[in-house]
Amino acid sequence: MKGVLINTLWPTTLVKIVNPDHTKIKKNLLSFFDKYIKKNTTEYKSGNAGENFLVYESLHNLQKEDDKSCKELMTFISQSFLTASNIANKKDLEKVINPIFDVQINGAWFMKYKKGGFVLPHAHGTCSWSCVYYVQVDENITDKQGSTYFMKPTTKNSTNDFGSRHNAYENVRYKPEEGSVILWPGHINHGSIPYYGDINRIVVSANALINLVK
Known about the structure:
The protein is of the alpha+beta class.
């Protein structure tokens, strides 16, 4: 049809990326986390009322730790943040010639889940993008155990016609898979379903700001 102007507003971009080097850094990451917990028995408390249940959470400065495996993971996560941002901002990216970006991870932390552990719905502030990286998880669990879920950022549909299908999903969940990272806009509410695997579910979360330098 002629004379049609399309303006897609307020989309929500969720991106999943697999780290090809996960097996090379996993063992060292787990060793670092074990040593960290022994030194820091008092865990960080998220949120004003506490969002975590049966979960250990580190301080939010993992990006500053002088550990080789952590640095390698932060590099992968930074690259993943930029990939997700470029996908979401494709139209604006096309207007820039040879862009140079500065990815600032302004918070990164690991979380260790015991059996039955979960996190209530919440959103992250002071960032444009957030992520969760799955370091360790029981590969035999179903998508109903330990999955990360994301909640629709708009109001619930009052209609159920074909025209509403693009806005039909109230939530979506991702089954945790070792070595993969899920990235999303920082304002999206998310949480995790109770985990009942035979080994601890261990993840790294991070927030980032991405600035166009040139």
